[in-house]
Amino acid sequence: MSTLITVAPTGAEHAKADVPQLPTTLEELVETARTCEAAGAAMIHLHIRDAEHQPTLDRGYLKAAVDAVRAETDLIIQLSTGGSVHDPLEQRLTVLDAEPDSCSLTCGTTNFGDDVFLNPYGFMSDLYVQAQEREVVPEFELFDLGHVAALARLIDTHGLPFGGIVHVDFVTNVPGGMPGTTAALMAGVGMLPREVTSWAATGIGRAHLPIMAAALSAGGHLRVGMEDNIMYAKGQPVQHNSELVSRAARLATEMQRPPMTTPAAREALGVKR
Ligand code: KMH
Ligand code: ZN
Question: What cofactor is needed (predicted)?
């Protein structure tokens, strides 16, 4: 069994001024996408920044990024519908207008440090149905165990997502969400509804490596990237997202689960060709 490696290169939380190596311009994003694909990533989870390096959901910026990454790589392009904690729900739904292959769909509200990452059931439900209608494959982001129950409710209510596959990603160690421990991850995996076909995991900050090891050993897939973790090791900041992808690919290969190719990932996730 191979390993799907997703790179989340930017996120909405880190400031370019604090982390200059964060890819925020279109040129930096495309270069990052190319390098990470070569290092073993098959999917990219994108948050877009504007000319001032601030998070944006502006359709023009999103479409330009989708088009450029699509032109330059074979990566599955997943746009974040989570955006930043300040983005209004209505605008988060418009992300689908940029025609990504995949979109994130977080399955519940979470405390997010001192902020709240809002995901009321009505919003999740609208996003689920709109993704079905537009033939976009959702990746269900699970920040907490209650989110697993909400996912089951969405599937029961609306049927399977576009593509007929249910792929989830446990986002662990967000301050306010589930801890980045093997025990918490395994509790979540044990609760997954039977419709779930594959799962991945990421650990924010210092949970990055422990969660990677736990996921690899338990048959899960991986998400890595500077959205989740800006330290390669103690005292050693990440200089480029490809360092994180390369390490994930090396570990996965050693575990006899080499990186999944992009065509295999499209097949596995039910993404349109
Ligand atoms: N930036 C977080 C508030 C997602 O991409 O869907 C939400 C997030 C989840 O990153
Ligand atoms: Zn994200």
Answer: Zn(2+)
